[in-house]
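ok posting inputs for the calcium ion job
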Amino acid sequence: MKSTAAQDAARMSVPDAAGSRALKALQASESRYRRLFETAQDGILLLNAENAQIEDVNPFLTKLLGYTHAEFLGKKIWEVGSFADMEHSKDMFAALQTRGYVRYDDLPLKTKSGTAVAVEFVSNSYLCDGLTVIQCNVRDMTARQQDRARIAYLNRVYAVLSAINSLIVRVSDRDTLFRRACTVAVDKGGFQMAVIALVDHAQMQVVPVASAGVDEKLLCLLKDRFVLIEEPAMDNPIMARAIQRKEAVVINDLQSEPHVAFASYYGQAGIQSVAVLPLIVAQDAVGVLALYAREREFFHAEELGLLTELAGDIAFAIDHIGKQERLDYLAFYDVLTGLANRNLFLERLALYLRSAASADHQAGLFLIDLERFRNINDSLGRPAGDALLRQVADWLKRNLGDASLVARLGSDQFGVILPQVQRDGDLTRLIERTMDRFLAHPFRINDEQFRVSIKVGVALFPDDGVDADILLRNAEAALKKAKLRGEKFLFYERTMTDAVAGKFSLENRLRHALDNQEFVLHYQPKMNLVTGKVTSAEALIRWNDPRTGLMAPGRFIPVLEETGLIHEVGRWALNQAIGDYLRWRSAGLAAVPIGVNVSPLQLRKRGFVAEVGRAIGVDLHAAAGVELEITENLIMEDVNHSIDSLGSIRAMGVRIAIDDFGTGFSSLAYLARLPVDILKIDRAFVTEMTASPQGLALVSTIIDMAHAFNLLVVAEGVETDEQSRLLRLLRCEELQGFLFSKPVPAGVFEDRFLRPVQVT
Ligand code: C2E
Ligand code: CA
Ligand code: CA
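and the output
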């Protein structure tokens, strides 16, 4: 700085005391300004307004533009490289001279090394000791400009994100989704190129499945590099790296990255940066989304955050669509055996029937039922049963030549299509031979060999039905009859369907039974083994069928359950029992509580607890008059739900009994947690008790265990004095059974067990 007020003042030499103070003050001020100039975070350039010569330049500007202090000093402004490139720097100077002020918001300059910098250029002129000085402030705007560009870019990525999200909702097949996602990335996101590639584990490759903005040559080259090699991470292709690490791999300057193959091709394709984002489904990298940008240094933390979200959304869609495909699969295939299910089987059957019709030949439909499959499930467990079903499916596929002819139609039922049956062919012999071969085949379960026998029902096209549904129904009728009659196989005969139709009419008749008040409750007493007194009763439903007479529940409860009628009928039984109890009370009889059976379906239904609440709400004494009997199997099916519901019911003052105990393999730990009051030992154990020492030991254990949990024990199905005596010895509290009384109508029950004995 040649001449400033401070310097001029410093040069003055007035050696009196006041002058020396003033001098000191000036020196202090000079150094303060100097420091400001030296440390300013904007560039400052001082020009001689007469000749455009640079008078001074601060360190910030020398650093920004890369020229030394000496390279600036004494030069005219347009002689310094950065400004020399500026065509209008002379005009700028002219403007400064005349107006004393210029301002450029966005002035592009070059540094000495040639890098572009954008600056804001503001200048003022002022008079200083008779000399006009122009002060130019130069502010580096590069970062701010980049910020602006970044915000614009982030906005574009947002646009891509929301566009892809709306795609995900609308598009239901993968290929379309992938294709459109790539297009959106290029069109809306401004990427040069976008590729989605999926992992093919069998080929150890990442296979591009969709792309947009693609440079064909580059894609071709890349394809060879889509191999998933287990090389040291750095030598691995970018995509493989992203998949192996399950994290984004970003290269912001492909040209200077030593580990990138085809750097020059990327250059030719106008690509400088790449981000490869893994698509992660269920913790597994199933593919990648690769985005290629024209700009260097394109992908930074914020963008990556958004892009990762984008990859996450695409992965979600893959998963979602995958599940949909799986659902489609479930709609047509049996998951256990991989065979067609009933839906697909019927579709295929219809096709075969159509071609049989046009070729004018017969076709056959076989239904195969495994005998005693239930036993295998029960004795060896579900996994063993499943293993057997898979082996049977394999056998059928292998021996019938074409897997598409076979289907699994029910738990242990298979269907087979015989596309062509010779009119004079000996179908019977074919069936017999096949059945023998099947029976001879050793199936293996848990290292043991099993022979499995089957029953077969056959229906023929066109005689037994011309469409798939009817043919299947008729084959089912034939199979049912074969099972009833104990035949190995049966051909359909027209009379068979009547029996099947019976079921439908049973259903229909049951629908009217409630309205017509055809249901009744019979009561069976339970007796205290010590006092011999009746302690309670069990309500057992009967159906007074106008056509066939009194029907036992074993025959119609399953139909009620199948049709959902059980909810209504169960509600009726509960209310009827409560009504009877209250009636006994008000008639002054020795009313005893009534146990009401609850179907699994009822307990599972939401609102059941509330329904019980409503039923006992009719009277203060109702709760004490009713017990709910719930089978053990059912409680164990969903223990936590059972504990909740039973707990709430019990809290209303209703006692709970576990019915059929011993059939459900309850663990003792659960028994302790169950909110129950009574345990009813299943009739099978009572029978077994007198038949074998083990049976006796078992019942003894059950009783002791129940007592340990403070449960009252009732033995069911007691038929003999011996059973009764043993139970008393084992300290079982109560018995129920034909020995004491069969279930009887309410009126009989009242007379026999609730009225005081008339002494005459
Ligand atoms: P459960 O709850 O085990 O009822 C006991 C069954 O054993 C009754 O058959 C009863 O008649 C029979 N029984 C009683 N003592 C003896 C005996 O000494 N020897 C023999 N052999 N049997 C005896 P029932 O009445 O045919 O009922 C069968 C099943 O139907 C019941 O088994 C119960 O699970 C169900 N059930 C009955 N009423 C209803 C109802 O209102 N709702 C529901 N959901 N199920 C009911
Ligand atoms: Ca019962
Ligand atoms: Ca029972």
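notes: Residues 96 and 102 are 6 Å apart (CA to CA). The pocket of calcium ion (ligand 2) is lined by residues 538, 597, 629, 659 (CB under 6 Å).
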